[in-house]
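Figure 6 in text form: structure in, sequence out.
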């Protein structure tokens, strides 16, 4: 762990836009960074920043996203995703983010996450699974 979790912490991650990160439904000439993959990469950039500052046995889950995907990034380009922790309220954290390729801004928005204990979360999910299985058995 490095410095404590506080507003203002930031990180930037460069992502290479390969074929798996692009849309396919408009043909090969229009392969651009897909919004679902962009969102995933933003979430992982936020999560990775948190993991540098929270204790072992903890992780985080996404709870809300505001995403404006404002520019198309072609396959073969890169995108820099910059995330900044804007608020910390107990386990609830909020990030501001932006993404740019070599030409323009491609995305901006906010992302909320909640810090959880991995073991406690696993127990809660096992209990939910047991309830679901009981409901389908009856």
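Output sequence:
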């Amino acid at each position: 762990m490095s410095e404590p979790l506080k507003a203002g912490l930031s990180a930037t991650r460069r992502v290479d836009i390969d074929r798996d990160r692009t849309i396919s439904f408009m043909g090969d000439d229009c392969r651009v960074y897909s919004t679902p993959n962009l969102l995933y990469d933003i979430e992982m950039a936020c999560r990775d920043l948190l993991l540098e500052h929270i204790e072992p046995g903890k992780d985080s889950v996404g709870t809300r996203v505001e995403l404006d995907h404002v520019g198309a990034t072609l396959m073969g380009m890169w995108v820099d995703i910059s995330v900044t922790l804007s608020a910390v309220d107990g386990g609830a954290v909020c990030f501001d983010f932006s993404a740019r390729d070599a030409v323009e801004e491609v995305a901006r928005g906010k992302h909320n996450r909640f810090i959880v204990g991995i073991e406690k979360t696993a127990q809660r999910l096992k209990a939910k699974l047991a309830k679901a299985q009981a409901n389908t058995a009856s």
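Caption detail: The CA atoms of residues 9 and 85 lie 5 Å apart.
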